[in-house]
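User: For a reading group we're discussing how well predicted structures match intuition. Take EF-hand domain-containing protein. Before you show the prediction, I'll give you the sequence so everyone sees exactly what went in.
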Amino acid sequence: MGFFVRNKGVPVSDVQLKKLFSRFDKNNDNRLSREEIAEAFSQLGAFFPGYRAGRALAYNDANGDGFIDLHEFNDFVNYALSRGFELKF
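Assistant: Thanks. Here is the predicted 3D structure of EF-hand domain-containing protein, as structure tokens, for the group to look at:
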């Protein structure tokens, strides 16, 4: 597999994003913190990954606990898909 970058290559699928984001759940608590989300967006080649993580939480953290949990995960993945990340080979 290649690596993820923005605006070059083949669009990333929801399955690829789910796998990528799941890898960043470092403590295996089935939720993503702002720091874990920022690391994932950095891996995707996002400009200002910390800012992107904050925006992702603002749009997708339905219960306001500061994490993306299993109930919010699909909406979060759809949000990330809408940002236009692509896979470069």
